[in-house]
Amino acid sequence: MLRRLFITWCSLLLWTGAAWSAVPADMSPEGYPAIGSGCLAGHCHSDTAPIRSHNSDMAKQIYLLGASQGDPNGCVVCHGGDPVALWERRLHHGAPKESLLTEFTTSPAAMSVVDKTCGQCHTGRVYSLRRSGMATGTGHMSAALQAWGIKPKQPVGIKTITDLDGALPSVGTPEYQAYMVRLNRKQDGIFAERVVAVPEKKWSEIEARPELAGYKYVRSKCTSCHIGTIHSGGKDSGCAVCHLRYGKDNKLLTHSLQGTAKSKIVVNGKATSGIAFENCAQCHSEGKKIATSYAGLLRVAGAQTYRAMRDDVHHNGMNRYGNPTGGLLCQDCHSTRAMHGTGNIAVSGRVNVEVECADCHGTTEFFPWELPLGWQDEFESTPAQGDPRGTAEILPFEQQVGTVYVPEDGYLLTARGNPFGNVVRRGQAVVVHSASGISYEVPVLKKIAQRRAWKNPARAMAAKLQHPIHFESLECYSCHSAWVPQEYGTHLLVDFNTPDTFYTAQRTEQLQWRSPILGVNGEGRISPLTPLVQQDVTLVAPDDAILLRRHIFTAHTAQKNPSTIYNALHKTIEDLLVNRVDTSREETVLSVYDSAGAYAAQNVPLNDLLSASFTMAPLAPHTVTRNARPCESCHANPKALGYGDDSGFGVAAAPLKESWLQAALRSGSQTEILERDRARRMPSRRNSNISAQQVPYTQVVTRSGKALQQVGFHWALSSPLSDAQRDIMEKQNPFARMRTEYSVTEGMIMVIGKYEIDAITASAVILAIIFFVIVAAFMHTRKCKRKEGPKC
To answer: Where do the H-state alpha helices sit in 604-655?
Structure first.
């Protein structure tokens, strides 16, 4: 009997596995209109999956176009080539006379030919995409050039391109278009009329003005990621960066395009839909580390290894009760306008991000549809006012391509007036339809408040009901971010092997993730900050001459005299003493590097140097947790307020010695820095008893209100916390004026199944379990000694 049950069970498992791994008929290579002809003849491409389901409108249009060009299977529509040739060389040559292509291409999604391939049907998308941040890279390049003290006369990007249709976005609702026009006027030019390609600089120019090496550095780093030049503009560039699935070594996993929920693809026998997270992560794991943070991964500074952290609650597969298992994809929140662009050239990535937390969750007083447009997206110092935004019944044209969901009681609107398309109202509930094919009910704060269904009632009511100012002045993720990657202090080595080629290596001084600094973002709301520019540069000429040694450039936004650049080092590091900035002493001995390459000792206020050089960036960390950080982690934490945590070792704590540099150049390995203990003991030529002090990487403001670092540089309202905000935060808590380095709880949360408990409760439970196990083992041992039975 048991044997029969075992055989039946195994057979059932095998049948289920076979059924699960079977390729649907409409995705099978056997479903092409003309099997065995053209590109599918022989064994070359006979097993190639269709670009979309054979029954889809897109596939049918491609087959019709292909038939008119002599290829019923449609391969020539995107690739060109000669469909009637009898051997490979002729097949992969030329293009049908009806085609927009003039030559065969293996990379139809590349930006160089996309107007003749994808653009045949998606003309508007191609125009917008070429001007989007994903293609131009303007915002990221501006940040990178900031670290080199460079402000180009015109915004720079991957390639030269012009906005031909003016500042009015070509997509979105009329409300959205009017909103963006007002925002452009308010922020004085968030759109650029023209972007020029990053200029090439000759070595003779760099030798005369070392900061121009920043252009070469940006060309080598930024162009390796953005969609027009990623992977050298090959098969997996352009539209394919997002819409095709690649595995290790950039190997194509399937020929089918991924997109919305109805665009299913089959990878390794499993059918999926939506843009895979891995596609987004290949670019967005750099910079602010948004993708890896969302997945709960913290990259160890200076290495390609990751530390497992807590992932974002929207990514976590363990959802609230009543919801299916699974997380949201990036595209479920970020709209097609954020990805494909709006037809305008934005100078910052934040320009096209139109989603806010309250758009789906609302507040404790208002449902999402009861909030005014602009809530949490004010770009002003006061909350948005106005009539309720309501919902929408009709989608803009660009959102009607792909999966269109039933609006039910209306599509929810973003803060800028566009319908989500995949987020609908159902009575007083909010439902989000993920591109993965799963639908979730969203926790709505007003319903939770009405039912008093808080997970932690005391903390929730204190933060949300007793202090409503939190809703008016903070971003939700200021409290609900579990952690933030913070890389303080970057030592960059740029070594020119020849006048045209160079080697780079960098080392981060300190990696933190707890209790981020708080500041004001461009929207006028308090948000977490992370280091954007805290860089010193060592520049080595082709003849091994050191042009710059741990050089800190003056940021272009604070530069008063372009011919003078402050340098935090003298000719040798041992000659320099850097005092930690505090309220009692704020001056130090620095050197000034002028355009003639001469050094001169000079007393310069260190806070002036840092405020002109170091930049912190506001960000949404994408590490949201349902349980917010405790009150004291902000109100009684000097680091959160911007006063620092006494942990930042700077350039003076990392002396540069010739032997270290030559070793690094010789081995070609990553740059190394002397151990801190050894650095502290480094003798000074001025006074052998003086040890290197700290540079306040984690301090952005003094208690007297003097800013030590910039906060952002694209938006007018970005700044450290104001005097009034810091004063209120320190006074409005039971730990007023407590100057402690660490918080007791520090927002530590443990997840057990679907339950969230704080660290103290978790520790008590674990200790109780351990105590119970020890007692049980002790009792069992005593029992066995009395009864020497077979179980003992």
So the answer is: 606-611, 632-635, 638-641
Task: At 270, list the tokens.
Answer: 């499993």
Q: Are 628 and 746 in contact (CB under 8 A)?
A: no
- DSSP character string of 492-550: EEEEESSSS-EEEEEEEEEEE-SS--EEE-TTSSEEEEEEEE-EEEEEE-TTS-EEEEE
How many helices, marked H, and strands, marked E, lie in the chain? 26, 28
The HSE-up count of residue 156 (CA atoms within 13 Å, CB side) is: 22
Counted residue by residue, the chain has a size of 792
* Span 291-326, pLDDT tens digits: 999 999 998 866 678 888 889 999 987 767 778 888
Q: How far apart are CA 607 and CA 482, in angstroms?
A: 31
Residue whose pair of structure tokens reads 């491609």 in the numeric block: 62
Fill in the DSSP letter of residue 703: T
3-class SS of residue 561: coil
Kindly report the pTM of this predicted structure: 0.80
The Cα 349–Cα 346 span in angstroms is 7
pLDDT tens-digit readout, 578-611: 322 222 323 333 333 333 333 333 444 545 555 5
Residue 133 tokens, joined:
């941040």
Sheet with strand 502-512: strands edge to edge: 502-512, 486-496, 535-540, 546-551
Instruction: Report how far Cα 648 is from the mean position of its chain's Cα atoms.
Output: 24
Within its chain, how far is the Cα of 356 from the centroid? 16
The total of other beta-carbon atoms located within 10 Å of residue 433's CB is: 20
| CB of 511 closer than 8 Å to CB of 487 | yes
Region of poorest pLDDT, from 102-106, 408-412, 697-701: 697-701
Which alpha helices (DSSP H) does 425-504 contain, by range?
445-451, 457-460, 469-473, 477-480
State how far the Cα of 137 lies from the Cα of 158, in Å rounded to an integer: 6
Residues 274 and 277: their CA atoms lie apart, in Å, by 9
**Residues 434 and 261 sit within 8 Å (Cβ to Cβ):** yes
Euclidean distance between CA atoms 498 and 267, whole angstroms: 45
Strand pairing category for 518-520 and 719-720: antiparallel
CB within 8 Å of 583: residues ≥ 6 apart = 702, 703, 704
What is the rounded CA–CA span in Å between residue 218 and residue 198? 8
Tell me the three state secondary structure of residue 143: helix
- Tokens 């974002």 locate to 312
Q: What tokens appear for 729 in the block?
A: 């935060």
pLDDT(175) > 70: yes
Block residue for tokens 């252009």: 215
Residue 434 — φ and ψ, nearest 5°?
-80, 150
Q: How many CA atoms lie within 13 A of 409 on its CB side?
A: 10
Are the C-beta atoms of residues 364 and 445 closer than 8 Å to each other?
A: yes
Residue 41, token pair as written in the block: 């003849």
Contact 544, 653 (CB under 8 A): no
First to last CA, the chain: 33
**29: which 2 tokens?**
């290579």
Distance CA 637, CA 659 (A): 41
pLDDT 10s digits, 69-83: 989 999 999 999 887
- Cα Rg of the chain, angstroms: 30
Q: Which two tokens stand for residue 383?
A: 């909350």
**pLDDT-based confidence at residue 792 (cuts at 50, 70, 90):** low
Q: Tell me if 599 sits within 8 A of 549, measured CB to CB.
A: no
CB atoms within 10 A of CB 96: 20
Distance CA 792, CA 786 (A): 10
pLDDT of residue 791 exceeding 60: no
Token pair of 300, please? 């160890």
- For residue 699, the SS3 value is strand
Contacts of 143 (CB under 8 A, 6+ apart): 287, 532, 533, 615, 617, 713
In whole angstroms, give the CA distance from residue 639 to residue 643. Answer: 5
Contact 424/407 with Cβ under 8 angstroms?
A: yes
